[in-house]
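chain below, 88 aa
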Amino acid sequence: MAEFAIPFCSIRYQDGVDEWGINFSRFSLLQNEKSAWAPVPDNSNPLPWPSLGHYNGIKPPPKLGTRFSIIPFLSGQGSEDIDEAPSE
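prediction:
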């Protein structure tokens, strides 16, 4: 069993949406078996949008507008010349 939390701010959606396209799949190496919640044809592209299952009743919160964040970072470099002969 696995549980995932996907924040609504990371998904693009229209206001008032309550039907979502979703699918879950897994591949078992032990049994060489591929299974999915909504059936996906073998000849479909990697993103089979028409084959997604429909999940109803999730009402997302109102959009908060543009999400913007700044992540500061610091980078540095140093070098040192070392003489091969010791100084006296």
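The mean pLDDT is 79. The CA atoms of residues 9 and 68 lie 11 Å apart.
thats it, cya
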